[in-house]
## 1
Amino acid sequence: RTRLPRKGLGLQVYSYDWFQTDSSVTIAIYTKQKDISLDSIIIDNQDDSFRAETIIQDYSYLIHIRLSHEVQEDVSARIVENVGKIEIVLKKKENTSWKCLGHPLENHNSFIPRKDVGLHYRECQLISKEDVTHDTKLFCLKLPPSSHLQTPVGQHVYLKLTVTGAEIVKPYTPVSDSLFSEFKEPVLPNKQYMYFLIKIYPAGLFTPELDHLQIGDFVPISSPEGNFKISKFQELEDLFLLAAGTGLTPMVTILNFALTRVRSLRKVKLMFFNKTEDDIIWRSQLEKLAFKDKRFDVEFVLSAPTSEWTGKQGHISPALLSEFLKRNLDESKVFICICGPTPFTEQGVRLLHDLNFSKDEIHSFTA
Ligand code: FAD
Ligand code: NAD
């Protein structure tokens, strides 16, 4: 039994237990957290090591063992919500009775700060790659069946490649396969696909290498990371999204979450900054969504338009923002998310402060 070390989290007791039938083994993790969800648990079973990491705020509770017997590849997880219990089901390879679950490995049954756990990687397979714009592609990668991992809204993962003998890791933000995929919980058990919108920079270190991968190749993907908090959406009425280029990526799941899960929401507005029309990621999907859902509006701003462009032009500016950031009602609860190239984001945050938005009302995605 493990005790939470910190005050703010309370002194809940974390523990696990296991039981078996002829054909399966169930590991039950008791968190006593009512708001636990399937994105709080990351499971991997590879290289003789079974690992289940339950994430609660900045801490991880780890189950880490060498199982005593072999299991089939696929693993499933479910939440028993009202009691904060997580159940992991493993299928036995042979119908024998297990005397013990296995042998403890490093940090088994312990509660440690996330930053001390380190990022864990699993090999994911490239399933498909589709052009989205002239330089941005939608990559689909498949998690191994022995893993369970869902990236929380607004968080990112790391992809790892070996480039000329050196291991390089870069962060990327998982998206849905389109703006119209339903965001439901509990998610279907077979949620093994991860999608990424990635811009290929011809002179870049990592992305040309990623682009050279063949369908079927493997890429290690890390556990999620990030400090975005969906608690910011409580009672939210007006959501403003400021994105530049691939800075759209965190907005995809945020948009989806806001439109499907935030009851208090009245309006979501996206201002999307790009160089030219050809650079706009998912333009027609964004327009379709705005047409379909009256709560959502999108405005495109181009920094290097052709002479035919009749829409908004320029870089992020006080004039563009003060017109865009109109509250629905004087007192309405507002939240603003901003993501793009560092100078864009830094300038945007300065301008938002100048317009009297508080730190609490802004989330900036930075490196
Ligand atoms: P780099 O080698 O970093 O080069 C990038 C560009 O800068 C190239 O055009 C290169 O020619 C130019 N450049 C490099 N060095 C210099 C220099 N000294 N002077 C001038 N120009 C230079 N990207 C996505 O596409 N999708 C995502 O979902 C995504 N999510 C992210 C999430 C987070 C939290 C962060 C921090 C970044 C994210 N990024 C995302 C960006 C991504 O991590 C990489 O930075 C990006 O893919 C560039 O990688 P690269 O190694 O190919 O290019
Ligand atoms: P880009 O070069 O195509 O530029 C898009 C727009 O950004 C431009 O049209 C312009 O309006 C604005 N912009 C660019 N440089 C600017 C500057 N110096 N000052 C003010 N505005 C400027 O963008 P891109 O190549 O798609 O790059 C997207 C960036 O977003 C990358 O740097 C990437 O690392 C970052 N990103 C960060 C995250 C995160 O979570 N932190 C996620 C995704 C992308």
Note: The two ends are 37 Å apart (CA to CA).
## 2
Amino acid sequence: MAAESHNWILMATARTPTNIAVIKYWGKRDENLILPINDSISITLDPDHLSATTTVAVSPSFEKDRMWLNGKEIPLSGGRYQNCLRELRSRAGDFEDEKRGIQIKKEGWNKLHFHIASYNNFPTAAGLASSAAGFACLVFSLAKLMNVKEELGQLSAIARQGSGSACRSLYGGFVKWTMGNEMSGRDSKAVQLANETHWEDLIIIVAVVSSRQKETSSTSGMRESVETSSLIQHRAKVVVPSRILQMEEAIRNRNFSSFARLTCADSNQFHAVCLDTSPPIFYMNDTSHRIINLVERWNRHEETLQVAYTFDAGPNAVLIAPNRKVASSLLQRLLFYFPPGPDYELNSYVLGDKTILQEAGIESLNHIEALKPPPEAKDKVPSQRFAGDVSYFICTRSGKGPEILMEEEHALISSQTGLPK
Ligand code: DP6
């Protein structure tokens, strides 16, 4: 029946992780296609702690494309979304569900509109690469819905056109984004260096740093760097190519001290490029600098690298420890210097894998209160503590890539109304 055939709603839901770069992407050679000036390498974070879930729905009854992020409708006018959609449409396949009387021909996708609902399991405003997980998830779920038969690598090249760093979220474990050299951007895509089981001992602690300041977006920040920084050219042409090789080797051999040295150096150089931009861009704040000092002092005291740090386009610190033992010593130090502000609860101050907290022997706020300064603290100067300067910590690890969630209960859109549940 003709009337009935307009009532169907087809949906797909996926969950996609965030990633943190250990060799940074900063600077484009093509703004529209989002082609970078250097390769980059990232670790995919455990989706149980940091991921986006997206449901995409299509129906002949939808009048326009609409999107809801964490329950709030947001405009979909952006060129980046349109670019991803155009790429997917050109690769869409036929779809048929005889039982429900649904048939969509390849060309038919051009006339249909989408409803998209996305949800981050971590605070969006925290500046934790939410656009990376978001665009990766959008592309992954739409590819499923539209029956796009492409390898993950090609999907990553589509996600790249949503947000550069998104291409690295198509794989779990350790991922390289090869800059490529084709004009079309086809070869500017992600490749997996090792999966999430390769280096399972690594523990990652994210310190979400309190900040009142609105930061320069990565997109405009890197544009200004490319236009005004002379350091960025040297970085892209000389420094990064050799670091990429060394980082690949460090990951392959699970060589933590090499991995940590490169990670810290690359984060610091990225922020140096930001300072070398005119006008200079400051992403890190006093709390970020204190965290760097804490790690550097500890590393020097132990005479081997205990922990690596890295910072993206914001003040949050991502700290990487070689194993649980070191991670719990790190957490003790972090909680000593950055105890929660008044009215916090321990349960909402340390999120994610809470077993690290137990291993650090911290079961209550009183335990944090009673922490002693670490041995490397200068003994003559009384250690200052900075309550409230960190909003919360997330303990996590390297995790798997995107997955399709089949069960109806995971869908964020109602199959009856086509609107967010
Ligand atoms: C500092 O991927 O957010 O996090 O491609 O313009 O969307 P656009 O930028 P985006 O930049 C990320 C920059 C970074 C480093 C990194 O993730 O490699």
Note: The longest helix spans residues 231-252.
